[in-house]
Design goal:
Blueprint: H1 3-21, H2 25-35, E1 44-48, H3 54-62, E2 66-71, H4 74-81, H5 86-89, E3 92-96, E4 109-115, H6 124-134, E5 135-145, H7 152-174, H8 177-188, H9 193-202, E6 205-213, E7 218-225
Parallel strand pairs: 1-2, 1-4, 2-3, 4-5
Antiparallel strand pairs: 5-7, 6-7
Helix pairs in contact: 1-4, 1-7, 2-3, 7-8
The structure holds S-adenosylmethionine.
The site of S-adenosylmethionine (SAM) has 20 residues, from α1 and α3.
């Protein structure tokens, strides 16, 4: 499965399907995540796997700071770019690049965020090492993702809604059922939240906050980088 092509192909319907499949809760989840990050005029914030920029836009709307939106699927970034108002345009910078090779010097970013992107990266340990490299010591990392379900509600949700409803509805609207089958598989094959917390702790981060959102369908992690 070529993940870059997959997201490129569904870029036109990605936002609509996010709203429909999550009943609009994805917006609330992003807002919660962004509220945990520092805001300030001279801060540099990385949005890793930025997609159509919804997380970056949420951050930029809430306060000052430069947001560097990195994704390897150009159509996703360009779809997002159409949503950026002239007021925010000069604070959002698009970078089309692989998330495992972030084209920035060491300790450049004050904070980093990644919403539903980590699961798609082929090597999570390498991704965390790269994030730790580009973050300043003490810099925050906020991650939201669909971790492998380990609560009764999220397990049932994944085996019913995730397995049958999402691919059917997603395939119907995007005309790409394979992409939404991949979504379910990628969740089942990902680490649980607890396993990901352990990975963070072993790779240069202190976990500050970890919480499940909406019965564990998504989870949010906040960690600080250390040397
Ligand atoms: C589910 S979308 C999330 C988009 C966005 N963060 C959001 O909140 O909606 C996952 C994104 O990760 C990107 N992605 C996956 N693997 C990547 C990689 N190795 N490097 C850069 N971007 C990647 C995809 O292109 C896609 O846009």
């Amino acid at each position: 499965m070529n993940v870059r092509e997959l997201f490129g192909n569904i870029s036109g319907t990605y936002d609509l399907l996010n709203r429909v499949l999550s009943f609009g809760t994805d917006k609330r989840w992003r807002k919660k995540g962004v509220s945990l990050l520092p805001h300030g005029k001279n801060l540099n914030i990385l949005d890793l796997a930025s997609g159509t920029l919804d997380l970056a836009l949420q951050y930029a709307k809430e306060g000052a700071g430069e947001v560097w939106c990195l994704d390897f699927a150009l159509p996703m970034l360009l779809t997002g770019k159409m949503k950026v108002s002239p007021l925010l345009d000069e604070r959002l910078h698009l970078i089309c690049s692989d998330g495992l090779k972030i084209p920035f010097p060491d300790h450049f970013f004050d904070a980093a965020m990644c919403a539903w992107g980590m699961r798609n990266l082929p090597d999570h340990k390498a991704a965390l090492c790269e994030l730790q490299r580009v973050l300043k010591p003490g810099g925050s990392l906020m991650i939201i993702d669909f971790f492998k379900p380990n609560r009764t509600f999220s397990k049932i949700f994944s085996k019913t809604y995730g397995r049958y409803v999402m691919p059917t509805l997603g395939g119907w609207i995007s005309r790409d059922k394979a992409a939404y089958n991949y979504l379910h598989r990628s969740i089942e094959n990902f680490l649980s939240r607890q396993q990901f917390e352990d990975l963070l702790e072993r790779n240069g981060f202190d976990v500050i906050e970890a919480k499940d959102l909406t019965g564990g369908i998504s989870s949010l992690l906040l960690a600080n980088a250390h040397d």
